[in-house]
Sequence to fold (461 residues):
Amino acid sequence: MEDRVYKVYRIKNGTVIDHIPQGKGHLVMKILKLHKEPSDNFIALGVNLKSKKGEFKDLVKIEDKELSEQEINKITLIAPKATMNIIRNGKITKKYKVKLPKNITGIMKCSNPNCVINNEHDVSTKFIMIQEHPLRVRCRYCERVMESKDIYVL
Amino acid sequence: MVKIDFKGKDIISIRDFSKEEILHILKTTERMEKENFSNLLNGKIMGSLFFEPSTRTRLSFGSAMNGLGGTVIGFSDPKQSSAAKGESLPDAMKITEGYCDVIVMRHYLEGAARLAAESANVPVINAGDGANQHPTQTFLDLYTILKYKKKLDGLTVGFLGDLKYGRTVHSLVHALAYFNVKLVFISPDSLRMPPDDLEELKKKGIGFKEIEKFNSHIKDLDVIYATRIQKERFPDQMDYEKVKDAFILDKSILKGAKKDLIILHPLPRVNELNYDLDDTENAVYFDQAKNGVPVRKALLALVLGKI
Fold:
């Protein structure tokens, strides 16, 4: 099989986050604090790439980094159909679609200003997923239902 | 059958209860009305924490606890609590649990009851958390319907007034959805039931209609649950003036209604229930308020594991 032409530099070890909705790539960078923390890791942000289906998407490649569960869950909140590719020695060793757990703890803010969680210190937010696509979650405390557009990732 | 045991359980949201649990609470409430339990909670102490003023809920909880032989401590003015000094809610709960066997709490923040329950080792009963839940009100609404209709299945229930913001409506609709009921929602367009609640009804296969005027539907109803339309809910006062009279109930509506229609209202009313209804057999709202005592008695006895 002929090698794909890589528009974004190929990494040897690390993570490729693919199928990020168009325009959300920079948010993934922000969530992973890649724009803030100084590091020597190679990072590539691909914007407006064309998928095999001909749809536009964004993509993030991070060399020498594998993500924590919390980080993956945070990405899922804004890119529910993203694919994670774990690269070792230049080869994809693991590839999977992201999936949020039923109970979502400490990764997003409740959009209700009158929710107790926005008025107390040191208490983690907790949400229960009621629908995966399109995403709908209910705050465990104030019981408000939130959709993708209401979600602010912590 | 799974044994229903409420000992140590928190009463936070109607969403936490199965149909069987709801029926068990209603059955226990009936016993509280009919039998004498005046010494059931001897030696037990209820902590009554009202971070937001409420007269009826607080008094009926107090009446329930005293009526079962227990005692009540607490505050009804948040200025008297250490929350005024900036104490966190979890800390306040950890302190209070050392002083009492059960906590009854009203709070102005939504979700406060759930957070309190996570922090306290004694059962917490939610007496209203902001615009979110007020489960004991829902149980007394259900109990009132059951008491007069002798059943919850097969009824057509009409909800009237502010269905968008009325938390008592949302909780009661959620609970009724466990039963084989038909629902009619009568409200101005701007105060319709939230789409999420309607979606939930569709998923559960509950038939409902949304209308803006009673029209011919009054004849189908077994129960009317009326609520107050608050003027402040309308950004344009002209809109309020246009709709307000369509949601006032008086004796004339009874002409086209079933003889045994019952009218409920969480009270206080302003002008939406005409006083000429009060003497009719259809008006059960004062008895409904009274049912708050046996319902709260049942819940206190259940969570304390005494019944």
